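Work Package 4 report. The design task specified in the project plan requires that, given a folded chain encoded as structure tokens, an amino acid be chosen for each position. We show below one input record used in the internal validation round.
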């Protein structure tokens, strides 16, 4: 399954679009529950994005095959914005306090309509994609570009550093399945 900005936008509109060469079909609802929980793997460290607790900073940890490491893409606008919702908690990835500064921590909080909880996928140079916060225009990254366990997630300018690139996978070691504009996952 390949999720793209086009499909996420169609999902937000509540309908599916035609898939490569298929005959047009009537629009069908796209419930968010059809978008599976995926593992967010940092391209630089190879570690998975995982929440610690409510309002605690989200960090990277050694990947384990368990629900605590899975995130769902939940469409929230016709502009391709989505929530990254923790599969076990149902809480959304957000910028602590809704801040806009480099280094502001990323936490999980109740999903609502605040822009600090909305994200957008963008092409990145090389492997992986950027996960950009709609409110700040900054990218989900690992503090200091660390490859260490429990390094916290923060937002930082989208400047090509590999610690700002992500791959979303069905299994932690599987191939990436989320692409933007036909780029590499």
């Amino acid at each position: 399954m390949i999720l793209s900005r086009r499909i996420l936008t169609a999902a937000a509109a509540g309908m599916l679009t035609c898939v490569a060469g298929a005959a047009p079909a009537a629009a069908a609802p796209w419930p968010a529950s059809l978008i599976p929980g995926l593992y967010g793997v940092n391209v630089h460290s190879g570690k998975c994005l995982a929440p610690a607790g409510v309002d605690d900073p989200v960090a990277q940890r050694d990947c384990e095959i368990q629900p605590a490491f899975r995130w769902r893409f939940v469409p929230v606008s016709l502009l391709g914005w989505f929530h990254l919702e923790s599969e076990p908690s149902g809480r959304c990835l957000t910028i602590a306090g809704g801040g806009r500064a480099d280094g502001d921590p990323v936490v999980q909080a109740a999903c609502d309509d605040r822009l600090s909880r909305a994200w957008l996928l963008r092409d990145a140079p090389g492997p992986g994609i950027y996960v950009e916060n709609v409110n700040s225009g900054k990218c989900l990254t690992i503090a200091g570009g660390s490859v260490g366990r429990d390094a916290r997630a923060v937002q930082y300018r989208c400047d090509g550093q590999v610690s700002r690139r992500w791959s979303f996978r069905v299994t932690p070691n599987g191939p990436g399945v989320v692409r933007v504009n036909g780029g590499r996952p």
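The longest strand covers residues 70-75. Validation will be extended to a larger panel in the next phase.
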